[in-house]
Amino acid sequence: MAEADQSNVQSLRAGRGEAGAFGVYLHWPFCLSKCPYCDFNSHVRHAGVDEARFVRAFAAEIAATAARVPGRTVSTIFFGGGTPSLMQPATVGAILDCVARHWLITPDVEVTLEANPTSVEATRFRGYRAAGVNRVSLGVQALDDRALKELGRLHTAAEALAAVAVARANFERYSFDLIYARPGQTPQAWAQELQRALAEAGEHLSLYQLTIEQETPFAELHAAGKLVIPDDDVARALYDTTQSVCAAAGLPAYEISNHARPGAECRHNLVYWRAHEYAGIGPGAHGRLDIAGERRATATEKRPEAWLARVEAHGHGVVTDEALTGEERADEFLLMGLRLAEGVDPERYAALAGRRLDPRRIAILREEGAVEITPNGRLRVTLAGFPVLDAVVADLAA
Ligand SMILES: C[S@@+](CC[C@H](N)C(=O)[O-])C[C@H]1O[C@@H](n2cnc3c(N)ncnc32)[C@H](O)[C@@H]1O
Ligand code: SF4
Which sign does the torsion angle of CA 269, 180, 138, 265 carry? Predict the structure, then answer.
């Protein structure tokens, strides 16, 4: 490795480099088993995974992407899945080295890795830290063994909390995910579970309402009436409980499903929600790249082996690469930005769309209490508006 490359790799480890705002998402598409509610691009491979071959393919795709968007300074890196904590730490290290060989790295780079909270995976945390990871996000899902079983999880609540303790010992920054609005869950039971979670939480929690995703086993059970989820009123009460309990504990929502101590937000996810630029690497990864004055939406082949074959044949696995129109960019900006408590700048919308948001529609939504204008002129969805966010966005973008 050239001397300059080597020093950049060291910058990644030490968190030194240039300031910038560019995210790199890396998708690891394998899991030990498929959870019945999940429609993420994740696959089970009983025969094992050739990690060295994947590292070569990740390296090729990173190089191909860097050739399209050279000179960027990477501020955030995110290993998502699937289950990235099934990767050997050396695999994670090799991929990070490759990112650092092609782009500069900002001094305070955030490097997150999603992990499943089993004891086997927790033993790798120290290795991930040595490889350059500085934040983990654990899929705890529930603190109730019966619920974990119903969700098809391979760990108990005690095992998950033990993994959280290992995360805390190894990383200054960690987060975990819980799924609520589960079958039969009452606001009282959820408030208690959330209090327990907050006692274990660091600076950040992701709290997702159970969504019935099409073509999952949960969708079949739901359609057959064998899985009953809370109705709208109970779901609303569960949502309100989430907001009040977390805010009282100092972790208010900064996004519809994400809570953090102010300043401890996941900076990588903010790149998406603030419509900044990011590269998507690995099977089924999406990117948004600014090239020659256009914003390009990219997506790679989803199937892991087909992605490998494509990368080995063409140097990248990109199957979609289209320039977004101003209107599409503006819609995306609204859709992502209104998820945030900080809301959006209407001037940026107007610059992208070539037209202003309709003041009459804003006035009606304000009257309904669904949106508000902040003192610095930003448009944001209120707590009352968040449960109907999709309808609010559709109304504003129409
Ligand atoms: C891609 S998963 C990665 C985490 C890791 N594989 C795990 O499961 O521990 C990210 C998160 O999405 C959430 N999630 C996945 N499917 C969901 C669904 N149908 N409804 C609500 N949340 C879901 C879970 O909380 C999960 O931790
Ligand atoms: S929830 Fe996580 S572990 Fe379960 S299938 Fe989805 S990505 Fe894999």
Answer: positive
